[in-house]
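Lab notebook, design round three. We kept the backbone fixed and only want residue identities now. Task for the bench partner: fill in a sequence for the structure below.
Input structure tokens:
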């Protein structure tokens, strides 16, 4: 095991303990999937795999929906985990940049992610929000917050502000039109764009089937 492997293993353990019982959509298994996918994309895109792995493991350390001061909390928690390792300042700076800029936040603000490593983590995070897993996570989230599956009279809206996105939680099907179906066009890397196409199609097929069943279309 190299020194870097040991750091990854320790950070992984620490995050795993912290997120094991989370049911808000950011549970440990989400983080594990993002970590594994980001690592594969990093190898394909020839990016710095160590930075990508750290960024992926730490990317949900604070959630803008549940903390008052997202930036302060993110920095504080990232530093507290990384300080026990002998890492150079540039590595820590790069990981903080990823943690601070990863969130999609409704896609209203343009992504401020500058590094290829950060873009890869963001892509892997978005890929986990679409496809079969994306559908499952979205209904799990809706269940936790008591949303209806669907209401035909409540149409999706294109949010103009983060506040509107956070406040206007309607039924879960709207979340597909307000966020999930937009994600494939927001991928940064070629590798992610390719994976996104298939996962996007799967959601389109799911919605077609959902509305057929809703409307009693037999076929
Ligand atoms: P990010 O961390 O990129 O800002 P979120 O934390 O908003 O993304 O969302 C994480 C996951 O939680 C989404 O992929 C989705 O499955 C679920 N989710 C978030 N907001 C909603 C919502 N309003 N309705 C249904 N699911 C949601
Ligand atoms: Ni995430």
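Proposed sequence:
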């Amino acid at each position: 095991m190299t020194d870097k492997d040991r750091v990854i293993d320790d950070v992984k353990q620490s995050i795993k303990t912290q997120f094991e019982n989370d049911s808000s959509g950011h549970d440990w298994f989400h983080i594990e999937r993002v970590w594994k996918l980001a690592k594969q994309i990093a190898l394909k895109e020839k990016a710095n795999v160590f930075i990508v792995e750290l960024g992926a493991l730490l990317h949900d350390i604070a959630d803008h929906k549940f903390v008052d001061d997202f930036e302060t909390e993110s920095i504080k928690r990232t530093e507290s985990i990384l300080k026990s390792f002998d890492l150079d300042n540039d590595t820590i700076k790069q990981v903080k940049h990823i943690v601070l800029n990863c969130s999609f936040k409704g896609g209203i603000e343009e992504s401020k992610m500058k590094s290829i490593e950060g873009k890869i983590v963001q892509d892997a995070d978005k890929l986990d929000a679409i496809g079969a897993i994306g559908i499952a996570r979205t209904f799990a989230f809706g269940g936790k917050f008591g949303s209806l599956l669907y209401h035909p009279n409540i149409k999706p809206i294109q949010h103009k502000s983060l506040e509107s996105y956070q406040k206007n939680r309607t039924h879960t099907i709207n979340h597909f039109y307000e966020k999930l179906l937009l994600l494939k066009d927001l991928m940064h890397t070629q590798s992610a764009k390719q994976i996104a196409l298939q996962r996007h199609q799967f959601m389109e097929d799911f919605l077609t089937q959902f509305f057929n069943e809703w409307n009693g279309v037999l076929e």
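Keep this in mind before ordering anything: The domain at 3-214 is CATH 1.10.3210.50 (Hypothetical protein af1432).
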